Amino acid sequence: MTTSTKAAPPGAEEVGRELYTKMTLAAACDERLRQGIARGEFAVTIWPSRGQEAIAAGLGAALRKDDRLVTTYRGLHDMICKGVPLKELIGEVLGRTAGASRGKGGTMHITCPEVGVMLTTGIVGAGVPVAVGLALAARQEGSDRVAAVCFGDGATNTGSFHEGMNLASTWQLPVIFVCQNNLFAEMTPIAETMHIDKVADRALAHAMPGYRIDGNDPEAVYQAVSEASERGRSGGGPTLLECVTFRFKGHYMGDPQRYMPPEQLSAAEAADPIPRYRHRLIGAGVLTADEAVELEQWSSRLVQEAIDEVLASPGPDPSELEVDFFADMKGIPA
Amino acid sequence: MTTSTKAAPPGAEEVGRELYTKMTLAAACDERLRQGIARGEFAVTIWPSRGQEAIAAGLGAALRKDDRLVTTYRGLHDMICKGVPLKELIGEVLGRTAGASRGKGGTMHITCPEVGVMLTTGIVGAGVPVAVGLALAARQEGSDRVAAVCFGDGATNTGSFHEGMNLASTWQLPVIFVCQNNLFAEMTPIAETMHIDKVADRALAHAMPGYRIDGNDPEAVYQAVSEASERGRSGGGPTLLECVTFRFKGHYMGDPQRYMPPEQLSAAEAADPIPRYRHRLIGAGVLTADEAVELEQWSSRLVQEAIDEVLASPGPDPSELEVDFFADMKGIPA
Amino acid sequence: MTVTADTSTMTMAGAINEALDEALSADPRVFLLGEDLADPAGGVSGVTSGLSTKHGRERVLDTPISEAAIAGAAIGAALEGRIPVAEIMIMDFITIALDQIVNIAAKARFMSSGRTGCPITVRTASFGGLGSGATHSQSLEAWFMHVPGIKVIVPSTPADAKGLLTACIFDPDPCLFLETVALYGARGEVPSGTHVVELGKADIKRPGRDVTIVCYGRAVIDALQAADQLAGEGIEAEVVDLRTLVPLDVETIMESIGRTRRAVMAHYAVEYAGAGAEIAAQISSKMFGRLDAPVRRVGARFRPIPSARELEAAVFPSTERIAAAARETARYFI
Amino acid sequence: MTVTADTSTMTMAGAINEALDEALSADPRVFLLGEDLADPAGGVSGVTSGLSTKHGRERVLDTPISEAAIAGAAIGAALEGRIPVAEIMIMDFITIALDQIVNIAAKARFMSSGRTGCPITVRTASFGGLGSGATHSQSLEAWFMHVPGIKVIVPSTPADAKGLLTACIFDPDPCLFLETVALYGARGEVPSGTHVVELGKADIKRPGRDVTIVCYGRAVIDALQAADQLAGEGIEAEVVDLRTLVPLDVETIMESIGRTRRAVMAHYAVEYAGAGAEIAAQISSKMFGRLDAPVRRVGARFRPIPSARELEAAVFPSTERIAAAARETARYFI
Ligand SMILES: Cc1ncc(C[n+]2csc(CCOP(=O)(O)OP(=O)(O)O)c2C)c(N)n1
Ligand SMILES: Cc1ncc(C[n+]2csc(CCOP(=O)(O)OP(=O)(O)O)c2C)c(N)n1
Ligand SMILES: [Mg+2]
Ligand SMILES: [Mg+2]
Hints:
heterotetramer; A: alpha/beta; Rossmann fold; two-stranded antiparallel ribbon; 10 helices; 8 strands; 42% helix; disordered N terminus; C: alpha/beta; 2 domains; seven-stranded mixed beta sheet; 37% helix; binds thiamine diphosphate; binds magnesium ion
């Protein structure tokens, strides 16, 4: 096993700032993209992560840079918190050459190996077995890095999820299965698609440790991911983390959420993890109210700068189709 | 709900006789087919069920005739105990027109709706979701029949198994998931393909009752299936039964079983469910030793009669290919 | 065979909704299952809107994200004589249900020698053209053509959608019904009341004497526009809408080309090894010596579908590409 | 490009084993995963026999029955630059792994614009001809041809099997390597040591001037026998073994047919919408006006594969059917 490339864990204050910074950055990006779509500035769609930032922040802060991440169409927050440059991310969402894949992938298919984001999937559950392979490669290479994979509550009803969980457990690989349980899969509430109370219990089918945690508390997530990483790095195998949260903006940008009980939405909004954590940090003296405002402004500025850069980059040229398909194009149909 | 078409449950003695009869018949068929293959009489293969008869007998005796069954390539014992006529079954194994599908299906694909056998699959795990649909149809029709599905330990590693389990549980359908855990999947022992101790625990992932039972005790199986059926019929939803057993003859007829620890095989053979149950019935005065011998001879005779009938039936004519494909052949490629 | 002459104008989505509504009303065995089908969602594209409210949630079943189980449950119910209409939301996801559809549904009647049929309809949709990227834009109908035992239907107009879907639902064999999201909003006259379009009948959507454009689905719309353009150039193109790929209306195709002696094959699926390959091969050999030009094919380029709009447009067929192929074919001289 | 002139006689199974063995020796990144691969089983057909003993169980991994996870784990490792060779035991089961192979592996390089490649090899085998019935006998290579991003390879001789498999393993892109169980026992001369057959090069297995039989896999054996028969009738058939379907050696095909002016296309997969449809369509249009006969196709009949031997034989191609098609083609006069 190679040893950790990460410095000693930062103190509680530093962690708090890092978590809050990540949360605001993820929220600012989500908000700005939604604003742009609503205004007709961008003719694209996104699957907003607003509300789920605490999970991404806790995960991104607890993982090392060389740890791997697989996420989904709703994972822009995960990617931002793992360190994907905003320009690459927004560039891909907007389909410009500044994008991570120069517009060929799109929002649902962002890859940024430099920070460990090896795959994003639009197909629910599909990323789970792939994360097992990432962890297998780590073991083969003698690295102690771990592979985290994010997915929703609905994804735990797929066969891929269970096949991946079982394989990771059988081979005792360092995978962290991060279920971002936002209580809905598209328009369908969780109770209509599973009979169990806790997604975390699905770990029992694979003799894997499974924990349900408050996905709106970034420190709880940070703590749980840190423990799971430690377990993984030291050969203790995989962990399932069910992080309970909520998505405030529906399934996709513009979702009228007709299926959403108004009380449920307003109760969730009242528990918005961002003001909640801000309040806690200010109360603990980690942050002043002014600093919090500054951080938020800084986030919005970073996002806007990235958007400006992206929009200044050209749209992709059809010649893109002739490269990065097969390494050798001989005999490949035109 | 329509009411049960089955008479009041037979007394313990009758059940004992029924169970033992079923076991001997299943074993006799398996043995005669293996003998014929070994001798070069039949140029086919089978996946012997010898050793697993107690499960089939308990299941077949506890289910009603109108209850449904889905089983596998290793399920000849299940089918015999559910009432598939020997002639149809052996006819299909041997590929003659006497077979359940006139030779078009083969051993892995036997169907006999008259006794509730709706599907046999050669693809591991594939029958599980189909059983959910059978149970759904029962509910839609207002029938209280249940659907049982048999599969191996290895099948519980498939995505299909979990998707089917989850759906049955979510919809609280009357499905009995019968895992015939023979501790091996082809040449691979169970510990190499799952980390859990008990397959029954996989029910926990779906909030379903799950029980591990002695699959070599036909009465235990009978009891467990009876309870699960009762639960299903009365709207209590599905059940997972893990019946621990062993297959004595390896994966396929002729399997040299190089992977098999000799002590494990001999210990299993020492616990052969057939002599064990015979001994118990004789001890309990349900059967005399002579009657037991007679039953075994009667079973062998039935099997031989069926084989004779099958061999007297013609092999399938190529004209079979022109029928029972699409109901309407217009515009279908030749 | 339209049984009423009344029509009303509606979208293709509306026509599909009407076919489902009428089928649910006509036969109590009909039921729908799939993700997010029930109200208030009424399907991700609103196609099943209102149906659960009208027919009840026992007839319009929301499912977990379990494509294998959706197909399996439909198949199980169909083996019992129910009439399930399963939705696989986006065709790219049908990969997950393929074992069930290909290995069970398509083979059920044949493998059982007619003892069970499998009258399922699988509705699915191609999302190409919306910039959703490579995993949400495929048209995989050629896969199903290659699997003996399932019918393959692709409507291009609201009226055909209603009539063909009705035929599929009540067809005794499995049907894959492929919808095109880019056409959901297209309006047309649709017969009111029961409207059945016989499977296996192509429709000459525009007569012409100079070149035959054989096409289906979205390509029909482009072909008609191309034919308009070409008419201005003095080229009269006949547009043959296949509507069903299995069964295939070979007579109508060959009769048309017998007149025009020139053929273009167009579809939105990838050209290489697509449906058009089979049809072009048949045309070329059946009309050998009677063609005045080689059969040209227009399909998607051999690339994963890129997300950015400019790139996506460069991969898919278009009115221009179809017009160009038809023009070259019409003007070809040996 | 054989780098040594030494050869030895071995079976196709032996040649595949040797290719795997040498690849494992040559590059530490190579590893195998699949069901029952490790010793003592060494694969259900013994193809991987001895490899785990020699290279260790960390390089030859036994997996659970989880085809989606087998493919996913291979993909994840490949994204990290490992070189996985995954086995899907029987091609009919590849349906279960299809989402992973089609939606992730085949698209990885394109969707990431070259930031991740996916150098997996998926070995699978067609079990047709063994009487195993409809779900264990399919040849589905046409599906993969239709998916841009994966190479498709089907060897017909031991030497080609070794050379092509070696090329696949070290190819930077995903490869589907389809083996034919009915050919595992066929013997031939195989170059010792590193032996690579370039992907995309067809091989003229027998020269002839009267008609070209384009074929691959098992059909090559029949075509060669057919050519022998036809030679006795004064017809000299040229047998072009495609070896790879993607990339396709269009030059060699057309060059041959340019000489013979007559072509037959043969394969064991279902004829309708099979690989031969694409190739026949290309031949017909590229050689338009230069063919002396229509292109005839010989493939499996459009039926599920029946189990009984008489019926199975009536569905698959044969030397006789190929000879008949070649004879008719050679003797065709307009
Ligand atoms: C296999 C598959 N089935 C269906 C879909 C359509 N779909 C996209 S997102 C989604 C809901 C996913 O719910 P969940 O896993 O809870 O994630 P969330 O969107 O809530 O983050 C569905 C059904 C899909 N993308 N993939
Ligand atoms: C999906 C799938 N993968 C692989 C196989 C090959 N195969 C046939 S039987 C078998 C082992 C099944 O083990 P288990 O489920 O325990 O049943 P058993 O044979 O022990 O009764 C395997 C891997 C298959 N038929 N289907
Ligand atoms: Mg969710
Ligand atoms: Mg087993």
